[in-house]
Amino acid sequence: MNKISRSVDITMTILSIILMGGNYLFPKDIMHEILGVALFVLWGIHIALNRRWCVTIFRGKYNPYRVMQTVINCCILLCTIFLMISGIILSNHIFTFLNIQGGLGFARIAHLLASHWYYLLMSLHIGLHVGMIFGNKGTSTSAGPSTGSGTRRTAIIPRILLALVCAYGIYAFSIRGVWKYLILQQQFFFFDLERGYIFFALDYLSIIILFATISHFLAKILKNITGVNTYDFR
Asked: For residues 182 and 118, is the Cβ–Cβ distance under 8 A?
């Protein structure tokens, strides 16, 4: 089950990066619609695989970490609903049989706004669960005297690399103008053709890593404060 869930999550992340490129990545906009529908199908699978969280949302006590996790998850769900509705209204191919008239202006703005908030919240969501890996690997301090210093030196390298990627993520977040979309200062999606598709993918991947890192360490702080040692709720 964990392997299936991981595969679904990775596929959803890749699709999200691709879809953030709008119609610029494909010669025909029908591909954007097909991938969008595929993402929503994967969301249904993701929710089914993690239905325990949905069942327990109204059970148990809420500590700061669980509040943070619940707010992020519920906001992602809200963004997903807006993306689905606006995507159906804007559809030029798959959902034309619905013959929806009007609402294009609202749908365009809603799709732009919801997609960027979804991307940011998805990154925060990833950070919460990457913590399960970080918490079990590479953080042990129980090495013996002969290997302890070497282990600590080895652990510094990935941290430096992570810091560099996060620094670039801040740069990408700014140069791509993502913050402008989040507050609707930019109401039309702009794709920088001069930077090309490869840099687009690298930029948006670094943004995921940036916000995932932020949520991971914030979660660690909240868990240490409240004494929560396991990721009980997905």
From this structure: no
Dist CA 113 CA 83 (whole Å):
9
Gap between the Cα atoms of 34 and 95, Å rounded: 11
Q: Which residues contact 126 (CB under 8 A, 6 or more apart)?
A: 9, 13, 208, 212, 215
pLDDT in tens, the chain (234 residues): 578 888 998 999 999 999 998 888 887 889 999 999 999 999 999 989 888 888 888 888 899 999 999 999 999 999 999 999 999 999 999 999 999 988 999 999 999 999 999 999 999 999 998 755 444 443 333 444 445 556 666 679 889 999 999 999 999 999 999 999 999 998 888 888 788 889 999 999 999 999 999 999 999 899 888 776 544 444
Place of tokens 């970080």: 134
Tokens of residue 202, six digits: 């690298």
Q: Which pTM does this prediction carry?
A: 0.85
* Non-local CB neighbours of 196 within 8 Å, separated by 6+ positions: none
Identify which of 48, 47, 39 has the alpha carbon closest to the alpha carbon of residue 14: 39
